[in-house]
Amino acid sequence: MKVPHSEREKFEKEHGWAIKKMETEDQTVVQDCVPENFDPAPIQDEYAPVIFAQETVSHIVSVDMMSGEVSNV
């Protein structure tokens, strides 16, 4: 998905967050950072925002990798 600069503000309002840079000044790996700590992306002609999401499976406590059985204990 690409977002032209003319639609950036609309995109950010619709999603409730700002398009941010994917790096930090100290070159910290993006996976090790808190997204809220990233700076907003500088002005560009267009952006290719990436939405990171993680589904949690709270009802599974453990999975036996050999049998595939799930324990909810």
Written overview of the protein:
- With 73 residues, the chain is low in regular secondary structure.
- The chain has one helix at 8-15; strands at 3-4, 46-47, 62-63, 70-71.
- It has a two-stranded antiparallel sheet.
- A hairpin with a 6-residue loop joins β3 and β4.
- The mean pLDDT is 74.
List the helices and strands and how they pair.
Elements: E1 3-4, H1 8-15, E2 46-47, E3 62-63, E4 70-71
Antiparallel strand pairs: 1-2, 3-4
List keywords for this structure.
73 residues; little secondary structure; two-stranded antiparallel sheet; 1 helix; 11% strand
Q: Summary?
A:
The protein has 73 residues and is largely without helices or strands.
| Strand neighbour order, sheet with most strands | 1-2
- Shape assignment: elongated
Order of helices and strands: EHEEE
Give the termini distance in whole angstroms: 42 Å
**How many β-strand stretches?**
4
Helix content: 10-25%
Query: Mind describing the biggest β-sheet?
Result: 2 strands, antiparallel
Helices, by number, come to 1
Query: What integer is the average pLDDT?
Result: 74
Secondary structure category: little secondary structure
Strand content: 5-15%
Low-confidence regions: none
Rg result: 18 Å
